Amino acid sequence: MRPGGLDRRAFVAASLALAGCGPVARGQSPQALPPLKSVAPFPVGTAVQAAQLDDPAFAALVVRQVSQLTPEWELKMEYVAQPDGGYRFDAPDKIAAFASAHGQRLFGHTLVWYAQKPDVFVALEGPAFRQAFAAYIAAVVGRYRGRAVGWDVVNEAVAEDGAGWRTSLWSERLGDFEHMRLAFELAHQADPDATLFLNDYNLETNPLKRATFMALAERLLKSGAPLGGLGTQTHVAADIKPGAIKAALEDLASLGLKVRVSEMDVSLARAPELPSPSVDLLGQQGRAYAEAAYVFAKLPAARRADFTFWGLKDSQSWLRRENGADAPLLFDDDGAPKPAASAWEDAVRA
Ligand code: XIL
């Protein structure tokens, strides 16, 4: 079996693409590459920020390439929850309007995240806290009812090392498990048709974290929580061990819920140790994207929710804040497809 568990056809296709023999060698026009969404038998998405959509060239790239949009940060509490207890929706509304104007789906990210604890919630305790928590979820999910196809209801609940769950304002005020169960129940009440996800990262590189994540999912299901799917963020480095992405996706799919690749990017800068000094970074990046594409496309259709990239153009990647030279996405700073873009497409079709 080829590295990453790819069969020969997929491996050859991905390698050809990376050698510039695929439809797009490095730096060719976006038109030379068939749109990502046109080759995939599943929704293809990207994270966006409202202001990015004011750039006509980028808006055209988004419309051409993907069929689903996730607000990168403007549908999180840090943007929506206001100090006076009110809510701010101008930016997510703009993204939602863009999506519906272009026949694209909207995905809600995220409702409950340890990383965000607005002061307006910190100031509350007991019944008042629970009431504000419930009101927030009802207001946010309810606003996009019938437009958002799904939500990351709970994000990054598992501890960094995988041994148990994180503590947070939410767990302290409402209970370690109860805050999560309640969030799913409230989101379902606000939009019974949305698919509700548990989302986390490093599930490819930390088997203990993946096991704890899946055990949490099973406990939510046993509690009657309306959990509909599992999201693996897939923020990986180019030196990720071949086969790690495959193992994670197949393991997650074994639970019988929908699975989504929720935030994929493949960092070059975070890849200090490649398998061998001669291996080129872009080649490794393409192989990681190809492995995810190939395995996701081979999942049963009923298990595939969507495949979402955490951005399209390198210049817009959140990873650029960590390292200005990183180039983790499928399109370069000018929006031209990189070899990884055709590697991803060839692997989806393999
Ligand atoms: C990041 C965004 O990309 C940044 O713009 C923001 O400042 C911080 O959050 N996992 C997640 C995402 O679930 O919400 C994070 O997005 C990246 C890691």
Structure, briefly:
With 350 residues, this protein is of the alpha/beta class. The protein contains 13 helices and nine strands.
Descriptive key words:
disordered N terminus; globular; alpha/beta; TIM Barrel; binds (3S,4R)-3-hydroxy-2-oxopiperidin-4-yl beta-D-xylopyranoside; 8-stranded parallel beta barrel; 350 residues; 13 helices; 16% strand
Description:
The protein is globular and about 60 Å long. It is α/β, with parallel strands linked by helices and 350 residues long. Helix 10 links the parallel strand 5 and strand 6. The chain has a single domain (8-349), classed as TIM Barrel (Alpha-Beta Barrel), CATH 3.20.20. Mean pLDDT is 92; it is low at 1-26. Helix 1 (8-18) packs antiparallel against helix 13 (339-349) and helix 11 (244-253) runs parallel beside helix 12. The chain is built from 13 helices and 9 strands. It has an 8-stranded parallel beta barrel with strand order 1-2-3-4-5-6-8-9, surrounded by 5 helices. The site of (3S,4R)-3-hydroxy-2-oxopiperidin-4-yl beta-D-xylopyranoside has 7 residues, from loops.
Chain-wise SSE layout:
Layout: H1 8-18, H2 36-39, E1 44-48, H3 56-65, E2 68-71, H4 77-80, H5 90-101, E3 105-113, H6 119-122, H7 126-143, E4 148-155, H8 169-174, H9 178-190, E5 195-200, H10 207-222, E6 229-232, E7 235-237, H11 244-253, E8 258-267, H12 281-298, E9 304-309, H13 339-349
(3S,4R)-3-hydroxy-2-oxopiperidin-4-yl beta-D-xylopyranoside is lined by residues 72-73, 155, 201, 233, 263, 318.
